Amino acid sequence: MAAPKKVCIIGSGNWGSAIAKIVGANAAQNSKFDKTVKMWVFEETVNGRKLTEIINTEHENVKYLPGHKLPTNVLAVPDLVEASKDADILVFVIPHQFIGKVCDTMSGNIKKEAIGISLIKGVDEGPDGLKLISDVIQEKLGITMSVLMGANIANEVADEKFCETTIGCKNKSHGPLLKELMQTINFRVTVVEEYDVVEICGALKNIVAVGAGFCDGLGFGDNTKAAVIRLGLMEMIAFARIFCTAGPVSSATFLESCGVADLITTCYGGRNRRSGQSFCEDGEVHRGAGEGDARRSEAAGPCHRGRSLSHPQAQKPN
């Protein structure tokens, strides 16, 4: 019988803690997984106590997911290498801007046969243009990656409200195992092979959501907003057919949670929508509206400077 797979969650914010509830509960009940799930926590002090100490004694991330108990088998670890070195499955759920430094720290310190799954929405901007986050991780760590994207608002997932999500696998044999790790009665998982399409949906929907926010801020009404969302979805499909070159791009993938469902959720309740609205109303993108995720300097950068996803048609002009 194969040894149980050890799981490590890289990240402990709002979404990381919500997914830790699911992963911890599933690992405790499934013999395919080691009972202890390690979660790397960037150490902070909360009310005079270390956050890892609070999580490991009170089983609650009081800063990023207050009011929700984590399974007792989720172990908060402040040292990244210590948390990840023995893991067979690495679950990446950190802000996209930190992925490079995190992977550099992990490089050479993890199992060569480990597999990863990224829950990080966005793209990485570097000297060579834009890259998918999963590609950055795979290049830096040399592990096979999958991705999980969908209409998954963290607090609603933590509240165990019904939702769906999509896993895209570069290696389709990893799909069933990752589905067992992630799926619950209220968090339903669909596995597809178009991993790059699944991931690019998680980035492009934010751009459309800003446009939806413009509609709200300018008072254009629901009809116009619906048109923006529909046209945005069509452009997402067109974009994927140009830039996602790993295989054929099926329109059906956009009907999964990673596509139209996530787009709708973000265009009506996401931070990027609120940022677009506030920009139109007073000319500013408030941190309270966008929580730092859609500041003008960052949103404008990859959207207008870099046009490359390793595709010759998208290289910058000489």
Automatic annotation (TrEMBL):
It is an enzyme of class 1 (oxidoreductase). The keyword Cytoplasm applies. Coiled coil: none annotated. Its EC number is 1.1.1.8. The active site is at residue 205. GO terms for biological process: carbohydrate metabolic process; glycerol-3-phosphate catabolic process. Substrate binds at residues 121, 271-272. Pathway: Phospholipid metabolism; alpha-glycerophosphate cycle. Residues 6-173 form the Glycerol-3-phosphate dehydrogenase NAD-dependent N-terminal domain. InterPro entries: 6-PGluconate_DH-like_C_sf (IPR008927), 6PGD_dom2 (IPR013328), G3P_DH_NAD-dep (IPR006168), G3P_DH_NAD-dep_C (IPR006109), G3P_DH_NAD-dep_euk (IPR017751), G3P_DH_NAD-dep_N (IPR011128), NAD(P)-bd_dom_sf (IPR036291). One of its GO terms (molecular function) is glycerol-3-phosphate dehydrogenase (NAD+) activity. One of its GO terms (cellular component) is cytosol. Transmembrane segments: none annotated. It comes from the Eukaryota. Its main location: cytoplasm. It is found in: Cytoplasm. Residues 198-283 form the Glycerol-3-phosphate dehydrogenase NAD-dependent C-terminal domain. It catalyses: sn-glycerol 3-phosphate + NAD(+) = dihydroxyacetone phosphate + NADH + H(+). NAD(+) binds at residues 11-16, 42, 98, 154, 271. Belongs to the NAD-dependent glycerol-3-phosphate dehydrogenase family. Has glycerol-3-phosphate dehydrogenase activity. NCBIfam families: glycerol3P_DH (TIGR03376). PANTHER family: GLYCEROL-3-PHOSPHATE DEHYDROGENASE, GLYCEROL-3-PHOSPHATE DEHYDROGENASE [NAD(+)], CYTOPLASMIC. Homodimer. This is Glycerol-3-phosphate dehydrogenase [NAD(+)].
